[in-house]
Specification:
This protein is α+β, with helices and mostly antiparallel strands and 112 residues long. It has helices spanning 2-5, 12-24, 50-63, 72-81, 85-111; strands at 28-36, 39-46. The mean pLDDT is 91.
């Protein structure tokens, strides 16, 4: 509920305005109503998972990169180079499986 999010640093009006904007953009949905003292208030939940949010943020950041010479392969290589060797090898195994699955998926879309 909005009243539970408000604090000394975050005024209730700011919370209400932000919630309204997030509802308008379909970032939140009302899932329930709850009583707080003598007043009923809405209970909210996000319309997407944290994983979906993070992937969207990373995807958008990559699309908006300034240096267009950086490819997805360069980016992944750099990420892997910053990992411990065991973790990097594990990620490479996972990446190989993901690439195989994506090849099949893209090939089937291409055939349609």
């Amino acid at each position: 509920m909005a009243s539970e999010m408000a604090s000394e640093e975050l005024k209730l009006a700011t919370v209400h305005t932000t919630l309204k904007r997030m509802l308008r953009k379909n970032l939140l949905e009302v899932v329930d109503f709850a009583k707080s003292g003598n007043v009923f208030g809405r209970c909210y939940q996000p319309t997407f998972t944290m994983k979906e949010f993070e992937l969207d943020m990373l995807s958008t950041a990559f699309k908006n990169r300034r240096c267009k010479e950086i490819t997805i392969a360069n980016y992944i290589a750099e990420l892997l180079n910053r990992m411990e060797p065991e973790e990097a090898l594990k990620m490479l195994d996972e990446l190989e499986e993901t690439v195989k699955e994506l090849r099949k998926e893209i090939a089937s879309r291409k055939a349609d």
